[in-house]
Amino acid sequence: MLKTTLAALAGLIALLFSAFAIAAAADAHYKITTGPERGTYIQIGQDLAKWVAQPAGIDLEVLPSKGSAENVQRMRFEPGVKLALVQSDVYQAYVDMANSGNQDAGTTIRPLRLIMPLYDEEIYFVVRNDSPMKSINEIKDKVMSVGLIGSGTAQSATTLYRLMFGQPIPDQNAQHLSNEDALAALIVKKIDVAIIVAGQPAKLFTDMNPNLLQQIRFLHVDPAAPETARAKQTYFPATIHTSSYPNWLKEDVPTWTVKAFLVTYDYNLRDTVGNLRRFADSLCVNFDNLQEHGHPKWKQVKLELPGLGKGWQYYQPVERRLKACFAHRAATQAAAGAGAQPRAPAQVVNGRPCSDQERLLLLCGK
């Protein structure tokens, strides 16, 4: 009798501790820095907040920003920012500067860690319909908006220009405008080119007045141009599809692309590590919801952690969790057939979906 009573008491205590743990998880208030209000990054952040953080018991505030470079700085130094979306060329630029001896760059980038790669973002070279330019290699010495200082667009635009033409953009030709201001300046002929980085379909264009849309078009990559071969050192070919802008584009447009990454810090505090592990579990388990309900770019994301270049590292507590969950997910789908994962937000434990018994015992979400 005593043994039974003690066992019941121990079970009750375990349930109470589990309940406290779940309550503590729900009190985690984190921030993610994203991008402009009408860009793709902020929609990706909103998807993560709804379909990943919320089921993991994390209140994730989605912050707009100028873009990737600002996100790196805020990820590193702003209290409460635990996650950021960063372009691969921006991350690599910090790594390169750190390796060349820039102490500030090293201080900023070396403690940062990757959670996983996401999708490719298209680089749009926008001109007026009456422009004589047809291909991207014709932008040399033109007046252009290269994006706000601190944005990933600015990094991509300046890096691409230097690769293609072997020199920086002349100061008198570079304007640092927001995407919206750049398109407005383009239409009224204050600039010749607006360079914009955004995952298709970009709200910037889908929300644009149809009459204004008809006044602009995209430049395309010329595969035969020598500038194209030089740009391939860093960037990859991509296509802007008519299906992304069906009421505007008449044909697909070849362009360049840059990879987006989800980034965090090398945290070692127990509560933060635990919360990010739950976030990783939820990301894996609820991935189908992201693809079904989130921005179309989620359909390009793969559940994999590819090898990284020198100076790039995954966040180990999350890396182990994701690899375990990816393997479990693959095995489950192989056994039950494709599409067997649940569609509703799922609770997780130790990198796998909770069982009904674990839910009853309040052992999920740990």
Walk me through what this model shows.
The protein is α/β, with parallel strands linked by helices and 366 residues long. The protein has 2 domains: 2-120 and 260-360, Periplasmic binding protein-like II (D-Maltodextrin-Binding Protein, domain 2), CATH 3.40.190.10; 121-258, D-Maltodextrin-Binding Protein, domain 2, CATH 3.40.190.10. The chain has helices at 2-26, 40-53, 68-77, 88-99, 103-109, 152-165, 179-187, 203-206, 210-213, 226-231, 270-285, 287-293, 316-336, 356-360, and strands at 28-33, 58-63, 81-87, 112-128, 144-145, 174-175, 193-198, 216-218, 236-240, 253-265, 348-349, 352-353. Strands 1, 2, 3, 4, 5, 6, 7, 8, 9 and 10 form a 10-stranded mixed β-sheet that branches. A hairpin with a 2-residue loop joins β11 (348-349) and β12 (352-353). The two termini are 32 Å apart. Residues 1-25, 340-344 and 356-363 have low confidence and may be disordered.
User: Which spans of ≥5 residues are poorly predicted at pLDDT below 50?
Assistant: 1-25, 340-344, 356-363
Helix content: 40-55%
CATH architecture of the largest domain: 3-Layer(aba) Sandwich
How many DSSP H or I helices?
Answer: 14
Number of domains: 2
CATH topology of the largest domain: D-Maltodextrin-Binding Protein, domain 2
Please name the fourth-level CATH homologous superfamily of the largest domain. Periplasmic binding protein-like II
How many extended strands? 12
Strand content: 15-25%
Can you identify the CATH class of the largest domain? Answer: Alpha Beta
The termini sit apart by 32 Å
Radius of gyration: 23 Å
Globally, the shape reads globular
Mean pLDDT: 86
- What pattern of helices and strands is seen along the backbone? HEHEHEHHEEHEHEHHEHEEHHHEEH
**Overall SS class:** alpha/beta
Largest sheet: 10 strands, mixed
